[in-house]
Each structure stands twice: as structure tokens, then as C-alpha cells.
Design goal:
It is built from 5 helices and no strands. It is mostly helical and 88 residues long. It has a domain of 45 residues.
Length: 88
């Protein structure tokens, strides 16, 4: 059991530093690391509290991902230049 936990932590450490695009490009899908974190964070809690915590964590991840995508889109627009600026 101890070896399994050590291997699991090493795996999470190595692949935890990879960019989000390596896991999933869709913000609504949970990665394996997200599911493990949800499971580990809710160990020993009642079912009602587990569901609430998981829903909260998913909503926070979705909001963070959407904000990240919005910032990326804003940078893309700044690079290309806005066509509306010159047409006024």
C-alpha cells in the first residue's frame, strides 16, 4: 500500500505541472487529477456534503477556466488589432 501511495504522489507531481491543454481542452470536463482531488477532499464526509463540495469545486474550476480563456482571447485581440478601431 505504501508503494502505491508513493507512486501515486509521484505521478501527480510529474503530471501536475503539465499545461491544462494536455489534459482537456474543454472546461466542463474534469480531469483525473480533479476527480482525485475531489475524492481526497471529501473522504469521510456525508453524501449530502460531498455533493455540495464537489459542485462548488467544479463551479470554481469552470469559472477559473472561463476567466483564463477570456484573458487569452483578449491577448489574441490585442495582437491582431481590433477592426472596429479604424472604422469609426
Amino acid at each position: 500500500m505504501r508503494r502505491f501511495l508513493i507512486i501515486l504522489f509521484i505521478f501527480a507531481f510529474v503530471f501536475g505541472g503539465s499545461p491544462m491543454s494536455a489534459y482537456a481542452t474543454d472546461c466542463t470536463k474534469d480531469t483525473l487529477i480533479d476527480k482525485f482531488g475531489d475524492w481526497f477532499g471529501n473522504l469521510g464526509k456525508k453524501e449530502k456534503i460531498k455533493k455540495r463540495n464537489i459542485a462548488t469545486r467544479q463551479a470554481n474550476r469552470l469559472a477559473a477556466c472561463a476567466e483564463k480563456q477570456a484573458k487569452k482571447a483578449a491577448k489574441e485581440i490585442e495582437k491582431t488589432g481590433s477592426p472596429v478601431k479604424g472604422q469609426a
